[in-house]
Amino acid sequence: MGQTTTSMLRAVALVGHGAAGKTTLAESLLAAAGEISSRGAVEKGNTVCDFDPQEREFGHSLNAALVGFSWQDAYVHLIDTPGFPDFAGQAISALAAVDTALVVINAQNGIELSTEKMMQLAAARGVCRMIVINKIDADNVDLPALVGEIRERFGRECMLLDLPVKQGAEVVELLGHDSGESDFESVAAAHRALIDQIVEEDEDLLARYLDEGLDPSPDELHVPFEKALRSGHLIPILFVSAKTGAGIPQLLDALAQLAPSPAEGNPPPFYRGEPGGPTEAFQAEPDPEKHVLAHVFKIVSDPFIGKVGVFRVHQGTIRKDSQLFVGDGKRPFKVGHIYRLQGKEYLEAESLLPGDLGAVAKVDEIEFDCVLHDSHDEDHIHLKPLEFPQPMHGLAVTAVRKADEQRLFEILRKLEVEDPCFRIERHATTNETVIRGIGEMHLRAKLTRLAQQYKLELDTAPPQIAYREAITAAAEGHCRHKKQSGGAGQFGEVALRVEPLERGAGFEFVDIVKGGVIPGVFMASVEKGVRQALADGVIAGFAVQDLRVTVHDGKSHPVDGKDIAFQTAGRKATIEAIRAAKPIVLEPVVEIEILAPEAMTGDLTGDLSSKRGHLTGTQPRGPGVMAITGQVPLAELDGYQSRLKSLTAGQGSYSISFSHYAQVPPATQQQLVAEHQVVDEE
Ligand SMILES: Nc1nc2c(ncn2[C@@H]2O[C@H](COP(=O)(O)OP(=O)(O)OP(=O)(O)O)[C@@H](O)[C@H]2O)c(=O)[nH]1
Ligand SMILES: [Mg+2]
């Protein structure tokens, strides 16, 4: 291959449900393109993309992996992404780097949850979609029925680009073939339908085609084909077997000839704007001569290489000696080495063009989702934020070895910067470190990695639930704080009233004292004392909320009136009032959405009721899939991931978001109060 240009580049992501065959397909493409001598297998743990020891052991991808190969005149950058919902963050961020998503469907299983999700997400970001039906060699596949299902679900724009022949041993491409046999549909009819759909994008071509009745040439079809792909007027369907190699040459040709170049895809959704100010769309041009604009879509913390930023170049050329700015940073960094990635290999490159994917190492300022550029003209440019699922699944962690306590946070932080769906929280009040992720599997993968890569062993426990306290009646509280010891004394007296407010109202402080019996400066002290009492909690050690505290009387002293005396009086008066105001303990309740096979709806709703949950709806979501929504106390969801897995044979998934606080059952309240008394006495 001679000099590479941007028009020769393709950036493509393999997305879709777990075990659809994406990693195997990447392997087949690399082998057919001559990049590797033979195809590895996921079962043998020797594929280029699943190079991480944990992936090899688990038999599934956990991270997005980058590879590249040449085919005909094109150079294809391919990202293999994990299909499991727990690792969706890696698949979602890959969408920011590519012009085409190959949505891989397992012919044996049909449309699955992640298929749906990735079809939607790719469309929402303007990424051109092609559907690849894999495993056409397998037993018990019904391809005509699957095509019907795909059209019903994703629209009639899903059109055949090729068809299997000889019982799936080979595949016939349909743009260039208009006759012959196929396994289940007429080649002539499928060819005609495809051409009809493409020429609709070009009025002149359509008129000529109707007049003359002759097929347009491949050259004439190219521009309208790209247009149809960009708008979603055409979503091509291709058939392959990553195992036997059937359909692989046709898929390679489609990538080289039909997948959009950086100039042919939808422009990336950049915008310009300072934080908090107005924003305007910014059009990056895939022109190698312009200023540099690149977007970091992946961070890797490599124990040997350090922090690696993986980016897509959208404009300009990055060279090994370039100076680049990170985001709005004032000082540039010198790039030094730039790399292309081939699985775990870092291949040094001289320059990277618009449409290229590459990496830089050891630049601390680089963060996930940042923009790299080489001129202050491109300050304040960002890519439209990606939408990630909220990490709600939590585990409280502590280092097994005392000596590791110091480095625990530092290492967790490394994992946090590389995964947009992984968070660390530190709770000062409970002295707890909590890690949060999408699901149990996600967190387990992190714990294994900490143990294997960083030799850091952690003990885990369910995190404490963020309970609160509230009151259910109005009551009075009074305190005269008086201290006389040697020199200056302390004096402050406060009388106040507490009243419940509606749920979610928070806290109101009202001062109605008359005649300045508590001087203004000391009223601030009283408020401080009240807030202190509320933050510490009264009956069970949880913050008190949803109440009004009205200070209506008190007394000061010309000499002994002191800030500390009024703080103490305010705090003690509040505690007395709350104890008398029929206090209760509140717990967080979450909205839950469970996606599961329809047949399991009854079992799951029953299970939810047994967890003090209440159902708000059941709605079909795609063929055979039911979405069950409801509200349930967060405390009841401990271990729910495993439970759902066993109830649905691994087919269900769920997501939660905070809804409101509600009173705990009396037995729980008694228990929490008793536990608090034990702590108090210790
Ligand atoms: N019969 C058959 N099996 C296949 C084919 N492609 C992949 N497989 C098998 O399907 C299983 C899953 O393949 P992977 O390549 O790991 O699937 P994946 O989509 O990468 O899965 P995740 O990484 O979990 O998202 C493996 O056992 C493969 O050997 C195929 O074309 N035919
Ligand atoms: Mg995989």
Automatic annotation (TrEMBL):
Gene Ontology molecular function: any one: GTP binding
Gene3D superfamilies cross-referenced by the UniProt entry: 3.30.230.10, 3.30.70.240, Elongation Factor G (Translational Gtpase), domain 3, P-loop containing nucleotide triphosphate hydrolases, Translation factors
One Gene Ontology term from the biological process aspect of the record: ribosome disassembly
Superkingdom to which the source organism belongs: Bacteria
Xref: Pfam families: EF-G_D2 (PF22042), EFG_C (PF00679), EFG_III (PF14492), EFG_IV (PF03764), GTP_EFTU (PF00009)
UniProtKB keywords: Elongation factor, GTP-binding, Nucleotide-binding, Protein biosynthesis
Residues covered by the Tr-type G domain: 7-263
Sequence segments annotated as region (Disordered): 605-625
PANTHER family: ELONGATION FACTOR G-LIKE PROTEIN, TRANSLATION ELONGATION FACTOR G-RELATED
Function: Catalyzes the GTP-dependent ribosomal translocation step during translation elongation. During this step, the ribosome changes from the pre-translocational (PRE) to the post-translocational (POST) state as the newly formed A-site-bound peptidyl-tRNA and P-site-bound deacylated tRNA move to the P and E sites, respectively. Catalyzes the coordinated movement of the two tRNA molecules, the mRNA and conformational changes in the ribosome.
Protein's name in the database: Elongation factor G
Species for this entry: Candidatus Accumulibacter appositus
